[in-house]
Amino acid sequence: MARAANPHAMSPSRPGRTRTAPPQMPAQFPTQGRYLTYTLFGSTGILYLLCGFGALRAVWILGEHSPSAWQAFQREYATAPLIALHVVCFAAVIFVGVRFFSLFPKAQPAKIGPAKPPPRAILHAGLYVAWIAVSGGLALIMAGGIF
Amino acid sequence: MRHLLLKLEPVIWLLFGQGIMIGTMLLTAYLAIVGLAIPLGIVPAEALSYDRALHLGASLIGRVVLFALIALPMWKGAHHVRHLSLDMGGLSRDVIVAPMLYGLALLGNVLALVAVVRL
Question: What's the predicted TM-score (pTM) here?
Answer without folding.
Answer: 0.90
